[in-house]
Design a protein that fits this description.
Elements: H1 25-35, H2 37-40, H3 47-52, H4 58-69, H5 76-86, E1 94-96, E2 100-102, H6 104-120, E3 127-131, H7 137-146, E4 150-155, H8 157-169, E5 175-180, E6 191-195, H9 203-212, E7 220-224, H10 237-243, E8 248-251, E9 261-265
Parallel strand pairs: 3-4, 3-6, 4-5, 6-7
Antiparallel strand pairs: 1-2, 7-9, 8-9
Helix pairs in contact: 1-8, 4-6, 5-7, 6-7
């Protein structure tokens, strides 16, 4: 892993955990990787990227595989798609017997994708909005496996730059919108997805997402953690279930932290 030196070109906005002085190098890494091909080639090996996002362990990876297999047998397409995404950014990879060699982070994204299909049916006809997109791994996997009607990305500007580059390097085709997550403009998605990121936002930014994005969507899947409860004034899990109509809580499986849970609404079995 390599260290990232802070750059004033990518100041933090204090809108979330990864947009704060606590981990200020994250914005610099994303912006630098988007603009510098040499950094892009290895950005997933950056210490700050591993700390912020790409830290799924091999043990958790095996637990994700166990959950994935509950939905059906492993598909060779899963291996092909994961390896295609993992060909960019030089991530940490491990060998998972019988399935392939890849980063455990992509196993998390695959499990989320299968959760979406199980709860909402086919996503290929949906307009998806993702809050907190990281480097674009979750969106890339969804688009490669199920090509939704459109995909809207919300994140801080340097991260949006990186996700745009990542999608371009994979030569993905589709209708993509890349929007500033610090000041989310209104959209009308069919499905909102967020892997931990929404729960790590400050309350003011959460309010804007609720007003402009979440409350306009008939369906949603938000993996919630308690990080921001200790770092900002973010809404609690109970608050969000009260604020999002018809939402309810399901367990995070596998559970990656004691307090983690999933907020879901609009699922076909509701």
């Amino acid at each position: 892993m390599f260290e990232t030196q802070l750059s004033k070109e990518f100041p933090v906005g204090n809108s979330s955990v990864t947009d704060s002085d606590y981990i200020a190098e994250y914005a610099t890494l994303c912006g630098s990787a988007a603009r510098n091909q040499e950094i892009f080639k290895k950005f997933r090996s950056a210490k700050v990227m591993v700390e912020a996002l790409d830290h799924v362990s091999i043990e958790q990876g095996n637990a994700y595989i166990s959950q994935i297999l509950k939905y059906g047998p492993w598909s060779s397409q899963y291996t092909q798609v994961i390896q295609k995404i993992d060909s960019l950014g030089k991530p940490r990879k491990f060998k998972f017997s019988r399935y392939g060699t890849f980063s455990p982070t992509l196993l998390r994204y695959l499990k989320v994708y299968l959760d979406l299909k199980n709860n909402f049916g086919e996503v290929k006809n949906l307009n998806i909005a993702e809050i907190g997109v990281g480097f674009g791994g979750q969106s890339s996997l969804i688009c490669l496996l199920d090509n939704p009607t459109s995909y809207t990305f919300y994140d801080i500007p340097p991260t949006i730059e990186l996700a745009r580059k990542f999608i371009g390097e994979l030569s993905l085709q589709g209708e993509f919108k890349f929007l500033d997550g610090r000041n989310p403009v209104q959209s009308m998605p069919d499905l909102v997805v967020s892997n931990y990121a929404f729960s790590e936002l400050s309350r003011g930014v959460q309010d804007n997402y609720l007003k402009n994005v979440i409350l306009h969507s008939q369906r949603g899947y938000i993996t919630w953690n308690s990080t921001s409860i200790y770092n900002s004034d973010a809404y609690s899990l109970a608050d969000l279930v009260r604020l999002i109509p018809n939402s309810h809580i399901i367990p995070e499986q596998p559970n990656t932290a004691v307090d983690n849970a999933i907020i879901i609404w609009g699922n076909k079995n509701q």
